Amino acid sequence: MATYIGQRVAVLIPVVILVFSVVFAIMHALPGDPVQLMLAGAEAGVTTPERIAQLRRSMGLDEPLYAQYLRFAGHALRGDLGQSIRFQSPVNQLVAGAAVQTFELSLAGMAAALLIGIPLGIMAGLYENTWLDSGAMLLALLGVSMPLFWLGLLLILLVAVHLQWLPAISGQQLRGIVLPAFTLGFVSAGLISRLMRASLIEALRHDYVRTALAKGLRRRVVTTKHALRNALIPVITVAGLQFGGMLSGAVITETVFSRPGLGSLIVKAILWHDYPLIQGAVLLTSVSYVLVNLVIDVLYAWVDPRIKYA
Amino acid sequence: MSERGTTRRAFLLRSSAALAGAWGARLLRADRVGAAGGNLTIAMAADAEPASLDGQVDPYVSAWLLNSFVTDPLVLLTSSRKYVPMLAAGWSASAGGRIWTLPLRRGVTFQDGTPFDAEAVKFNIDRVMSPDTHSALMANYLGVKNFLKTEIVDRQTVRIIYSSPVPALLYGLSICPLWSPAAVKQFGPSFQQHLVGEGAFKLAEWVRGDHVRFVRNPAYRGARPWQEHDGPAYLDSITIRFVGEAGVLGQILKTGEANLVAGLPAQAVGTYANNPAYTIIAGYQPGNGMMFVMNTGRPPLDDLRVRRALRYAYDQDTMNQTLYNGSYVVVKGPLTKYTLYYWKGAESAYRLDPARARRLLEEAGWKLNPRTGIRERDGKPLALTIVMLHHKEIGEYLAAQFRAIGVDLRVEVVPGPVQLQRAQSGEFDLMYERLRSYEPDVLFDEFYSKNYRPGGWAWTRFQNATLDKVLLETQSTTDQTRRQALFTEAQQLVTEHALCLPTLDDPQYYAMTKKVHGFRLGAIGSWYFVNDISVET
Question: Average pLDDT for residues B496-516, to the nearest whole number?
Answer without folding.
Answer: 96
